[in-house]
Design a protein that fits this description.
The chain has 2 helices and no strands. It is mainly α. Helix 1 runs antiparallel to helix 2.
């Protein structure tokens, strides 16, 4: 059984390095993007409150959609990073077995 696993373990090593590199780059980009998206989300939230007080409902929906897109984008990248780290952990466990 060890002879069957050996080629797969050898193929898993570059994949581990690639996944780790993607995780590091994604974390770096996420941290840098948070410094840009966070003030935009705060500004859109303030505009959303102003539009609510003025009862401009189409603008409220537009600002809410922008806020939702920003939130989903940040959540999606965080979810991707977590799944990539789990995959990397599983591959490392496979190589160490």
């Amino acid at each position: 059984m060890k002879l069957i696993k050996l080629p797969l373990k050898i193929l898993a090593l570059p994949l581990i390095v690639l996944i780790k590199l993607v995780c590091i780059i994604a974390k770096l980009v996420t941290h840098l993007t948070c410094y840009i998206i966070s003030p935009v989300m705060i500004l859109v939230g303030i505009i959303l409150l102003v539009m609510l007080s003025q009862e401009r409902w189409t603008d409220v929906w537009a600002c809410g959609a922008i806020e939702g897109i920003c939130l989903v984008a940040l959540f999606g990248v965080t979810w991707m990073i977590a799944n990539m780290e789990d995959l990397n952990r599983l591959l490392l466990k496979f190589v160490m077995s």
